[in-house]
Amino acid sequence: MTRTNRKPRVQEPAVRKPERWLGQLVDPGSLMETDALRTHHSTGPGMDRHRVDGDGVIAGLARISGRNVAVYAQDPALMGGALGLVQAEKICRVLDLAEERRLPVVALVASGGARIQEGVDSLHGYGMIFRRTVALSGKVPQITVAMGTCAGGAVYQPSLTDVVIMIRDQSRMFITGPKIVESVTHEQVTPDELGGCDVHAAQSGLCSLVADSEDDAFQHVRRLLGYLDAGRRLPILVGEPELDDPASAIPGGGRATYDVRKVLAGVIDRNSFLELHKKFARNLVVGFARIEGTPVGIIANQPKALGGVLDCNASRKGARFLRLCNSFGLPVITFVDCPGYLPGAKAETDGITVHGAKLLHAYCEATVPRFTVVTRKSYGGAYIVLGSRSIGASQVFAWNGSEIGVMGARGAVDLLHRRDLAAADDIDGLRQQLEDDYTRTILHPDEAARRGVVDRVIEPRDTRAELARALSYANTEPAGLKAFPL
User: Fold this and answer.
1) How much is the average pLDDT of 424-448?
2) Mean pLDDT across the stretch 66-78?
3) CA-to-CA dists, residue 318 to 145, 325, 482, angstroms
4) Distance, CA of 29 to CA of 63 (rounded, Å)
5) Cα 134 to chain center, whole Å?
6) Residue 408's closest CA among 268, 253, 289?
7) Alpha carbons 338 and 375: distance in angstroms, whole number
8) Which residues contact 348 (CB under 8 A, 6 or more apart)?
9) From CA 118, how far away is CA 65, in angstroms rounded?
10) What is d(CA 371, CA 394) in angstroms, rounded to the nearest whole number?
């Protein structure tokens, strides 16, 4: 048998995940890595076999869509991405540069938590990162993408940042993993059941955005920077709204449900809406958008879920988002169609007063321009909290036909005229008359305008033009207040 002289195959070095991720995210050739050759000096068990350049994280400065940013990406292939002191020091240096130069921070995290082999040094490293992350809150945008499984301290760090992005079927975040949970509580759960996207997007509220792929996650990062990076908000071409009349999305009748996103489609620029926490507290919709090119934050009651009532989770969600907008100078527009706060014993024990006060506090402390549009109804405490003039709204608009007051006509008539109704021969007829009178004399938006709590009563189709005019006079200086915690 003859043998051919073949050159031995040269195996190309494998590209580490952090290198690939950053290659996908940042502008080509823009990464300026810091501390590239640093290694740990731990003498813990087996650590001599895990001494590599960079110590499991790539950190530095780069550009994303032309914007200067501070970035770091952990390597899950090195000890499961576990954090040691040197890795922490590298991350801290980048966070210090971000504060010094007022740069957004983008973190690509995948870590099993603290390195057991480094003991208290690893815990000390997490503490240093936490302190800097909190110090940066409200000063620069902080965006975290969970690129894989994150546990322990690797979950606390993202939870301190402004926006957390998870990737479907790839990201998992929990304090302790399934094996430890089973040993302590005897619960048998899968990683996804314990801390997958569905858990944190719909139940805990930790996840702001769910991406379908890594590329999708990085596209979310680019869009977010376009709204949050106050120093470099690039001009965007204006897109006409999808609907000519936002009121066409609302069915007749004061109690009919509808999707408020369709109302927004008649006001904001086409394809500009970036909704956060879409599956969490569905009775409130929050997100970024543009009106004639101007970036804004949107807060809107969602009648499609719980009638748009405010509950504990919706209050937390709205407050956190409003503080985020306030920190980075985004005007906030509130679309109100709300019957009030959720009543009942469970709501009280869940802390509706405590969490409701967080939303009230966020509106009261805000310094960015706030514009309110009452679309259908605004009753009781929810009227005050959701951007009323009394707590600092720049301007309040009410659609013609909307209602503003302590409560709806039906409830008010039951309280004020129960004796008359009990004695009436035609209860239904009298009730209707009394409700019509109460609506005309108390709830009509013209009455609120005469009392100076509504600036103008407008037709729904004029909403976009009115808001665009108001925004053209708005001063959008960032407040510099912390976005977290509540």
Assistant:
1) 87
2) 93
3) 22, 11, 15
4) 9
5) 17
6) 253
7) 9
8) none
9) 38
10) 6
DSSP secondary structure letter of residue 83: B
Question: Phi/psi class of residue 205: alpha, beta or left (left: φ > 0; alpha: ψ in -120 to 50)?
Answer: left
Supply 400's token pair: 């013609």
Q: Which of 259, 249, 272 is nearest to 300 (CA)?
A: 259
- Residues belonging to the active site: 152-153, 381-382
Q: Which residues contact 485 (CB under 8 A, 6 or more apart)?
A: 160
SS3 content of the chain, % helix, strand, coil (to 5): 40, 20, 40
> Under 8 Å CB-to-CB from 303, ≥6 apart: which residues?
256, 257, 258, 260, 337, 376
The confidence score (pLDDT) of residue 161 equals 96
Q: Where are the beta strands (DSSP E) in 96-250?
A: 105-111, 142-151, 163-167, 172-174, 209-211
Separation CA 407–CA 446 (nearest Å): 17
Q: What are phi and psi of 63, to 5 degrees?
A: -125, 140
How far apart, in whole angstroms, are the C-alpha atoms of residue 155 and residue 172? Answer: 9
DSSP letter at 302 equals -
The span from the CA of 299 to the CA of 264, in Å, is 10
Residue carrying the six token digits 């996207």? 197
CA atoms within a 13 Å half-sphere pointing along the CA-CB vector of 363: 27
295-310: pLDDT as tens digits: 999 999 999 999 999 9
Distance in angstroms (rounded) separating the CA atoms of residues 154 and 125: 11
Instruction: For residues 75 and 36, give the distance between their C-alpha atoms in angstroms, rounded to a whole number.
Output: 13
Other beta carbons within 10 angstroms of residue 28's beta carbon come to 7
Cβ neighbours of residue 358 closer than 8 Å, sequence gap 6 or more: 315, 316, 319, 486
Tokens of 358: 């967080």
Per-residue model confidence as pLDDT tens digits over 233-282:
665 777 889 888 999 999 876 678 999 999 999 999 999 999 999 999 99
CB atoms inside a 10 Å sphere around CB 24: 12
Residue keyed to tokens 């407008």: 458
* Rg of the Cα atoms in the chain: 26
| Spatial distance between the Cα atoms of 47 and 25, rounded to a whole number of angstroms | 31
